[in-house]
Amino acid sequence: MSEGLKTEIINKVIAALDEKTLTRTDLASIARATQVDFKDLVSLFKGDAGINFELAKQANRLLARFMSSADHQLPPAERLIDMGMMYLDFAETHPGLFNYMYTYDDKDKWEDISFAEIAHSNFALLQDTIKEGIEQGVFVKQYEPVMSLSAWSMIQGFAHIQSNKLSPFGGSLSREAKRQVMDSLYSGLLTDSYKDVYKR
Asked: How does pLDDT run across 139-197, given as a tens digit for each residue?
């Protein structure tokens, strides 16, 4: 019963973050924003650290669902773009949660195996796609670590711009335009021979 209630409360916190009715994730602020009794929050999560830990785990689970929904039948380069689009969808669907994920700071979270596995699985999806591309001659092997970090950094930056409406074109970008931005960002990861094929 308590696990179900925890999930219900975490979902309310996520909704409040996305609606911007919640900007701080301490128990007192959460109680006010979600109308959940403060005593119940303390009983279930023990303190601010407890609820933030559960919130961070759920955020990474949600991101994993979005990224896993990319079309895995596509060739590696196109799949990488599709994965980036799913990441972008996550950031635009959950703007408050997206920003929270990269401001939540708790060094102890990485000592929890379940958290580390959830968080690292998203990056692993991207790495596996790049490794597959290397095997097919699409990407250059010697740049593998740089490519993975570059791809992640580029989409995270674009997602930040879109979710926070920092671009004057943000609201007017069609899905195809967003895909073209992703294509442009990732084109530098391709080998010269693949670029020639890609332009035909």
From this structure: 877 778 888 888 889 999 999 998 888 888 766 788 999 999 988 888 877 766 655 55
Bridge partner residues of 190 (DSSP): 139
The 10s digit of each residue's pLDDT in 131-141 is: 999 898 888 77
Q: Give the predicted TM-score (pTM) of the model.
A: 0.86
- 11 to 5, 59, 83, 108, 160: CA distances (angstroms): 10, 10, 24, 23, 22
Which stretches of the chain are DSSP H helices?
A: 2-18, 27-34, 38-45, 48-68, 76-93, 95-101, 113-135, 144-163, 175-186, 192-198
What backbone phi and psi angles, to 5 degrees, belong to 188? -70, -10
Name residue 15's amino acid. Answer: A
The CATH code belonging to domain 3-199 is: 1.10.357.10
How far is it, in rounded angstroms, from Cα 92 to Cα 159?
7
- pLDDT at res. 1: 46
Q: Are 70 and 90 in contact (CB under 8 A)?
A: no
- d(CA 85, CA 200) in angstroms, rounded, equals 23
CA distance 86 to 72: 12
Phi, psi of 190 (to 5 degrees): -85, 155
